[in-house]
Design a protein that fits this description.
It is a single chain. With about 230 residues, the chain is of the alpha/beta class. The protein has a single domain, classed as Rossmann fold. Helices cover about 30% and strands about 30% of the residues. Strands 6-7-8-3-9-10 form a 6-stranded mixed β-sheet, with helices on both faces. It has a 4-stranded antiparallel β-sheet with strand order 2-1-4-5, with helices on one face. α5 runs parallel beside α6. Bound molecules: adenosine-5'-diphosphate.
């Protein structure tokens, strides 16, 4: 579904160049939950941003469902980010003044829809993440684990085939973190057609629920292991 070939990215600061990614080749398939792990500075965030077209590589190609993302114009790119990718962030990024279901519905609003039209789907998604009883709660009235499940429901609102999660359990206790990882695994596996779910984590225990662990080091792939469940 998503294929990276020869992806390199360097940053220059004060005359020094840091090779954040160095000729990375990776393929992500629907129905698979992948973890990207590795020490701080290994290039994990840079890789995730390139996967979500939030950043562009210096060289190499990113192909999504057969289309070269670098050839996209601005409209196609924002269409890609809005419809094809769902993001889950470490700090949840929920709007504090909105209820759980309104937060879930938000991507539909940003796409020109109305709350009224989006509500049934938002409630369905809250049920999927086991929060049907929290639909009218504000983020401040929920635990970290619940807030992150709202964020997962929001990432699913536009039916994106690719879900990217950046340290989604980084602010959760170990139990809530494990629950969240199982939820992401379920989302990758259960859905009709399946989704590609990719998470960055430096928590090795959190990677236990995944099907595949890609270990980055110094901008390169140190290992790429399929887990047998
Ligand atoms: P990780 O997510 O694995 O901690 P990153 O992808 O954030 O790694 O960073 C990889 C390398 O690139 C690091 O050495 C980091 O300092 C450098 N880097 C990342 N983003 C920037 C940036 N915007 N400007 C300069 N250097 C950066």
């Amino acid at each position: 579904m998503l294929e990276l070939r020869g992806i390199s990215k360097a940053y220059s600061i004060g005359g020094q160049t840091v090779q954040a990614l160095d000729s990375v080749d990776l393929t992500f398939e629907a129905g698979t939950f992948s973890a990207i792990v590795g020490p701080s500075g290994a290039g994990k965030s840079t890789l995730l941003h390139i996967l979500g077209a939030l950043d562009t590589p210096d060289s190499g190609s990113v192909t999504f469902q057969g289309q070269d993302i670098q050839s996209f114009g601005d409209n196609q790119l924002s269409e890609f980010r809005r419809h094809k990718v769902g993001f889950v962030f470490q700090f949840f990024n929920l709007l504090p003044t909105m209820s759980a279901w309104e937060n879930v519905a938000l991507p539909m609003l940003l796409d020109g829809g109305t709350f009224r039209a989006a509500k049934p789907r938002a409630l369905e998604l809250l049920e999927l993440v086991d929060l049907q009883n929290r639909a009218d709660h504000r983020p401040s009235q929920m635990s970290g684990g619940q807030m992150q499940r709202v964020a997962v429901a929001r990432a699913l609102m536009m039916d994106a085939p690719l879900i990217l999660a950046d340290e989604p359990s980084g602010n959760l206790d170990s139990k809530a973190g494990a629950q969240l990882m199982s939820l992401l695994a379920r989302i990758a596996h259960e859905d009709s057609g399946g989704r590609a779910v990719v998470t960055v984590t430096h928590n090795v225990a959190a990677a236990a629920a995944t099907d595949r662990v890609v270990t980055l080091q110094d901008g390169g792939i140190r290992s790429d292991t399929a887990r047998v469940s």
